[in-house]
Amino acid sequence: xxxxxxxxxxxxxxxxxxxxxxxxxxxxxxxxxxxxxxxxxxxxxxxxxxxxxxxxxxxxxxxxxxxxxxxxxxxxxxxxxxxxxxxxxxxxxxxxxxxxxxxxxxxxxxxxxxxxxxxxxxxxxxxxxxxxxxxxxxxxxxxxxxxxxxxxxxxxxxxxxxxxxxxxxxxxxxxxxx
Length: 178
Prior knowledge:
By secondary structure, this protein is α+β, with helices and mostly antiparallel strands. 26% of the residues lie in helices and 30% in strands.
């Protein structure tokens, strides 16, 4: 093997190794301004869920809000109010966990979620809870299967078999059968 070919092969192997290393790096938490704040109505529920998950061995790296909560604003009222208590993303060692929190004593039990596998995609249809669920979110699609869990006043969504298994253990329940 020539020296040039050997150097190219070494460089290629190094690039592959570095790429794999970065591919396994966990996603970073957002800047300090993004985490869910103590004044947020869903703050206590988010911390309670975090403690429950950590007591079952999951690592919660951070909790932050996403822009999804803006979909639940009641725009018919002169004062913008949310139809839900709040939402959060819990970034864990197994991936992201999306959570919607309903105002107690209400739950998401009336929400219906149907799953179809179509052309390599998972297609989800949402119905029920017309007074809460945004009318513009009737369907969504993903290449990866999403697992939904109803737990008290929480609606959790997660991707991946490891996350599904961890949630089944932590919540002592199976995901919705879609």
